[in-house]
Amino acid sequence: MSDVSRALQEPWPDLAVQREGVHFGIWVFLASEILFFSGLFLTYAVYRSFNPQAFAEAGRHAEIFYGTLNTGLLLTSSMTMAVALRASGARSRRITLTALALTVLLGLGFLFCKGLEYHDDLSKHLFPGPHFAIASPPAQLFWSLYWIMTGIHAIHMSGGIAAVVTVWVLFWRRTIPVQNSTMEGVAAYWHFVDSVWLVLYPLLYLVGRS
Amino acid sequence: MNDTPRHSRSRREIWLDPLLVWLVLLAILAASVWSAFLPLGAFNPTVNLLLAALMLLVLATFLMDLRNAKSVLRLVAAGGLLWVVFLFALTFTDYLSRRPTIGPAPPVHSSILASGPHAV
Q1: Beta-carbon contacts of residue B8 (< 8 Å; ≥ 6 apart)
Q2: Could you point out which of A52, A75, A81, B74 has its C-alpha 20 to 30 Å from the C-alpha of B23?
Q3: Which of B9, B55, B91 has its CB closest to that of A86?
C-alpha cells in the first residue's frame, strides 16, 4: 500500500481536501477554545480592575523563576513542533520523530516544573482558604484564578502531550505516513496551548514587580 | 494541488527558520521580564501585554504558519478574536458604567429606617 493511500482517510476524496478539512476543523475548535479561555481572562480583568493593589501584592508572591522557565520551555517546544511539521512536509521521518520526541520531553518538563511550583505555592499557604498567607481579602481572588487558569492550562497541556505521543506511535509503527494531515492538526493544537500560556504569563507572574 | 510542496527541503532548511524565530521569541521574553521590573507605574501592565501580543503574533505568523494559511483559516481565527473583543467590550461597558455603585453600600438615612418598610 502506498504512503498516499495510507494517508487518505474517510470520507475525503483526496489528500488536498482532507488537509483543508483538518485545518478548518482544528481552527473552528481552537476558536471555541479561545472563547473558553477568554471567559477566564475576562474574569481576571474585571476583578483586577476593581482590586489593582491587592492583585499587585498577590502577584508578587507568584514564583517568577518557575513561570519564566516554563515560558522558555514552551517556546522551545513550539520550535521543535514547527520543526516536526516542516520535516513531515519534507517526508523526513527521522527528523519528524526526533522533533516530536523533543516536544513531548519539553511538555513533560513543563508539567514537572509546574508540579514543583505548586508544591512551593502550597508550602507558602497560597491556596485560598482559612490559612491563606496574604491578609488582603481580594488577594484570594487572584490566587483562585491562578489555580483555576494554570490548572486548566495544565489539563490542556496533558491532552496535547497525549496527542503528540499518539501521533509519534502511529508514525513510528508506520500506521500512517509522516506527511499525514493529522500532524498539522496536532501541531496547531500544541501551538495554541503554548499561546494561552503566553497570555497567562504576564497576568500571573509579572504583576506588581516594579 | 501538491500535497507535499515542501518535500525538497534540506535538513538545514527544516531547522533554520524555526530556530531563528525561537531566538526572537526568547529575546521578547527577556524584554518582558526586564520591563516588568522597570518603574513604569500604570504602563507596566500595558507594556507586558503588548510584549505578550508581539510573542503571539510572531508565534502565529511564523511557527503556526498563518502567513501561508488559506483565507478561510484566517477568517476563522479572526472570527474567534472578534467575539473576544465583543466579550470584553460589552462586559466592561456594563462594569465601568456602573462602577460607582460597586463597593460598600452607602449609609441608610435614619429617617428611612424609622418610617418602616411600608413607608414607600
Answers
A1: A90
A2: B74
A3: B9
pLDDT band (50, 70, 90) for residue A23: confident
Q: What is the mean pLDDT of residues A153-164?
A: 98
Q: For residue A2, is it within any domain?
A: no
Q: What 3 state SS string does A153-196 have? A: HHHHHHHHHHHHHHHHHHHHCCCCCCCCCHHHHHHHHHHHHHHH
- Has residue A169 been placed in a domain? yes
Domain span holding position A27 = 11-205
**ipTM of the complex in this document:** 0.92
Helix axes A93-123, A139-172, angle to 10 degrees: 160
Does the structure show a pLDDT above 90 at A33?
yes
Provide, as residue numbers in chain B, all residues whose Cβ is less than 8 Å from the Cβ of A46: 91-92, 95
Choose the closest CB to B21 out of A39, A79, A95: A79
A1 close to B (CB below 8 A): no
Number of domains composing chain A: 1
State how far the alpha carbon of B25 is from the alpha carbons of A1, A85, A198, B82, in Å.
Answer: 42, 19, 11, 25
**Using only C-alpha atoms, what is the Rg of chain A?**
20
Contact residues for A9 (Cβ-Cβ < 8 A; gap 6+) = A18
Q: Which residue has the higher pLDDT, A6 or A29?
A: A29
Tens of pLDDT, residue by residue over B67-106, are: 888 888 888 888 888 999 999 999 999 888 876 555 555 5
The Cβ-side half-sphere exposure at A175, using a 13 Å CA radius, reads: 10
CATH of the domain at A27: 1.20.120.80
Q: Do A209 and B37 touch (CB under 8 A)?
A: yes
- CA–CA–CA angle B28, B29, B30 (5° rounding): 90
CA A120 to chain centre: 22
In a domain, A176, yes or no: yes
Single pTM value for the model: 0.88
pLDDT, position B104: 54
